[in-house]
Specification:
Number of strands: 8
Order of helices and strands: EHEEHEHEEEHEH
Radius of gyration: 16 Å
Helix content: 25-40%
Distance between the termini: 23 Å
Structural class: alpha/beta
């Protein structure tokens, strides 16, 4: 399973200080995120944390909130910082993965339709095989400009609709684990880009 990696995207304290934050779905998400991390650890799949950084507000370094949420298990792997919605470009992560011949990404984290979905789309375009574990993602209700409100569940369903079969395989943790024997024997895809040095935040 060394050709795979789990991305834990933007699971950071910053969200707890945003006006739209809603803790209603947090307990279930936390349980699923930990379950997914534990399953990957058992298979010796590298776990990579990504943190989002902005110039001001709760996502700024000055805020003190750009740090992993407390419920996450102790992390001893690489941590990358990003300043755009996708985790792969501009962060050094894509280069890091290519150097290690990792071509299969498991997507989890916050927010479902924003940085998680964008990373899945960009990853697919870069040639990665993507498993999008929706139950191990979290998002929040949103209101359209026309006044229509969309619940977190509706947003997740929409993300699954637009990703499935085009950019990613949508799966539960159980489905992901069940697919690992076949995945372990699948041929590795060749690297698509020139290798460069990756910058890693320890």
């Amino acid at each position: 399973m060394s050709a795979s990696a789990l991305l834990v995207i933007d699971v950071q304290h910053s969200f707890l200080h945003m006006p739209y934050f809603d803790a209603s779905d947090l307990p279930r998400y936390q349980a699923k995120q930990v379950e997914l991390i534990t399953a990957c650890q058992r298979q010796h799949i590298p776990i990579i944390q990504i943190l989002h950084v902005e110039q001001t507000g709760p996502f700024s370094k000055a805020s003190g909130w750009v740090k992993p949420m407390d419920f996450l298990p102790p992390h001893h792997g690489p941590v990358f910082e990003k300043t755009v919605h996708n985790a792969l470009l501009g962060s050094g992560l894509h280069e890091f993965l290519q150097q290690r011949h990792i071509q299969h990404l498991i997507i989890s984290g916050i927010r479902t339709e924003q940085c998680c979905e964008t990373t899945a789309r960009v990853g697919s375009d870069l040639g990665y095989s993507i498993d999008f574990v929706t139950e191990a993602t979290l998002t929040f209700a949103m209101q359209h400009a026309n006044g229509q409100c969309f619940s977190a569940s509706e947003i997740k369903t929409r993300t699954e609709l637009v990703l499935s079969g085009r950019f990613a395989r949508i799966c539960t943790i159980n489905q992901l684990v069940a697919s690992w024997p076949a995945l372990a024997h699948a041929p590795r895809a060749p690297a698509k880009t020139k290798l460069v040095n990756a910058s890693i935040q320890a």
